[in-house]
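Narrative of accomplishments. A recurring question from our advisory board has been how the design workflow behaves on a single, concrete structure rather than in aggregate. To address it, we present the structure tokens for one chain from the evaluation set, followed by the sequence designed for it. No filtering or post-editing was applied between the two.
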């Protein structure tokens, strides 16, 4: 596979990795299992258990495991056609996926701020309207 095609695959394959890692570690749909894992990661007696459960609360950590799973499915290799290609692609995919998640988080914070500003403005308008009546 040519380098340009490999880079294309790198940026495309990082999208589902970022999506899965973000959804499991941040979104409301997985809140209860994530809260359970957070408790177990803090209070389990075994260090192995604490680290295992922490995996489901950290998008960076979880993205490594999602990446390994995706590499098993896709057999994507970057630069080399042997074990080195898998190793390089693993870390490259994790890095790009985490850049995507950082960008998404940044955009999402901006959107929440705009919504809060709009809500505040709406409350101000309602108060002014009530004063007029």
């Amino acid at each position: 596979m040519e380098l340009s095609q490999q880079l294309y695959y790198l940026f495309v394959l990082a999208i589902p990795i970022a999506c899965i890692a973000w959804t499991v570690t941040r979104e409301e749909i997985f809140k209860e299992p994530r809260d359970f894992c957070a408790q177990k990661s803090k209070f389990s007696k075994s260090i192995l258990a604490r680290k295992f459960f922490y995996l489901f609360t950290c998008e960076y950590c979880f993205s490594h495991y999602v990446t390994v799973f995706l590499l098993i499915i896709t057999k994507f290799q970057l630069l080399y056609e042997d074990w080195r290609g898998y190793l390089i692609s693993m870390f490259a995919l994790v890095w790009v996926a985490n850049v995507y998640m950082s960008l998404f988080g940044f955009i999402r914070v901006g959107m929440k701020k705009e919504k809060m500003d709009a809500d505040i403005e709406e409350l101000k308008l309602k108060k002014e309207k009530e004063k007029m009546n």
